[in-house]
Amino acid sequence: MRPITLALPFILVAGAASAEGCPSWQIGDLTITNAWSRATIGTNRPAVFYAEIANAGSEDDALVTISTPVAEMPMLHETVVRDGVASMPHAMSVPVPAGGSVGLAPGGFHGMLMGLNAALAQGESFPMTMTFEKAGEVTVEVGISAMNARGPECLTDGS
Amino acid sequence: MLGAGAALTALAGTLALGAWRSRGLDDAGSAASPLPLPLSAMGWELTDHQSRRVSARDWLGRPAMIFFGFTWCPDVCPTTLMDIADWLEDLGTDADRLTVALITVDPERDTPEVLANYVQHFDPRLIGLTGSPAQIARAAQDFRVRYEKIPREDGDYTMNHTAGVFLFHADGRFASIIDFHEDRAFALPKLRRILT
């Protein structure tokens, strides 16, 4: 189950377009790109956080927590479908294998941002601090796409 | 993962509102999900996002594509609704002959007004349906859909629910399910089959 869950979001994001034009952030051997979210209706519904994490190093790492000023309770979740029923268990961590990459992407691992302090508006952005088990902390800027977006706006702008 | 396993085991035994309990024992031993009834044999009555009453009989005569979800759902539901919107676009004008509906599994929060505000973001042909908890339980039973309320640490809750998209022929016969994560190469032929 797990390798499929890991591989699929990556294919979805990589297939959308090249990563050129999207900002990237570096922490140790890790590179974070395609950080995006979707606009929300108001503040009651949880928002999402998606990103690509590549590990150029020779040691496995893992994303263990996320935090952001826009939400009181951001958590890592994973969408799991078993016997046709979708559930969204809390993910203790998201593995980032040595020499590999992982996507927080629709239908797989994602950040769930609960307790929003403000509605997320398309075209705006917010900071997100990602803490990794080994590489430490990095703060990325998350672009807010349309409510019905499949990916970050930086991938489609100007194309 | 363990949490999900435990939750789903619990789900297999007892389901929300007890409506499922009467037939729960028949299905408990089988891993395969039972198939939805034909639309003509369904007894649910719900309210759409424009506050109109809708029953399964109203849908006879047109092929139908139905999805269960809820608007507080951050990942699965928007992803599926975007897939649906893409399929409708790919089908072109043929898609106008389809009934396309989201039935909420969270009637507490998804009122007709909330659904109206939500479905417009995906496709103008998408109908949002809600009802009383008992009406939703009846619809879920007719479609053989499972759902369960999952309390969260902060006192809020989320919902587990059957994530497949159900397809029906114009005469109400159940046609097929498009599973979550299914390759779109398989989804479109399934849709074209109910449109012929």
Contiguous uncertain segments of 5+ residues of chain B: 1-31
Strand runs of chain A, count: 12
Report mean pLDDT of chain B, rounded to a whole number.
85
| % residues in beta strands of chain A | over 45%
Instruction: Give the CA-CA distance, first to last residue of chain A.
Output: 35 Å
The level of helicity of chain B is 25-40%
List keywords for this structure.
heterodimer; A: 159 residues; mainly beta; ten-stranded mixed sheet; two-stranded antiparallel sheet; 1 helix; 12 strands; 9% helix; 48% strand; disordered N terminus; B: 196 residues; alpha+beta; seven-stranded mixed sheet; two-stranded antiparallel ribbon
Structure description:
The complex is a heterodimer of chains A (159) and B (196). By secondary structure, chain A is mostly beta strands. Chain A contains one helix and twelve strands; from the N terminus they run αββββββββββββ. In chain A, the strands form two sheets. In chain A, strands 1, 2, 3, 4, 5, 8, 9, 10, 11 and 12 form a ten-stranded mixed β-sheet that branches. Chain A has a two-stranded antiparallel sheet with strand order 6-7. Chain A is globular, with a radius of gyration of 15 Å. With 196 residues, chain B is α+β, with helices and mostly antiparallel strands. Helices cover 34% and strands 22% of the residues of chain B. Chain B contains six helices and nine strands; from the N terminus they run ααβββαβαβαββββα. Chains A and B meet through β6, β7 and β10 of A and α1, α3 and β7 of B. β7 (85-87) of chain A pairs antiparallel with β7 (157-162) of chain B, so a sheet runs across the interface.
Record the SSE blueprint.
The complex is a heterodimer of chains A (159) and B (196).
Chain A: H1 2-16, E1 24-27, E2 30-38, E3 47-55, E4 61-67, E5 71-78, E6 80-82, E7 85-87, E8 94-96, E9 101-104, E10 109-116, E11 125-132, E12 136-145
Chain B: H1 2-13, H2 21-28, E1 45-48, E2 53-55, E3 64-69, H3 76-91, E4 99-104, H4 112-119, E5 126-130, H5 133-143, E6 147-151, E7 157-162, E8 165-168, E9 174-178, H6 184-195
Parallel strand pairs in B: 3-4, 4-5
Antiparallel strand pairs in B: 1-2, 1-5, 3-8, 6-7, 8-9
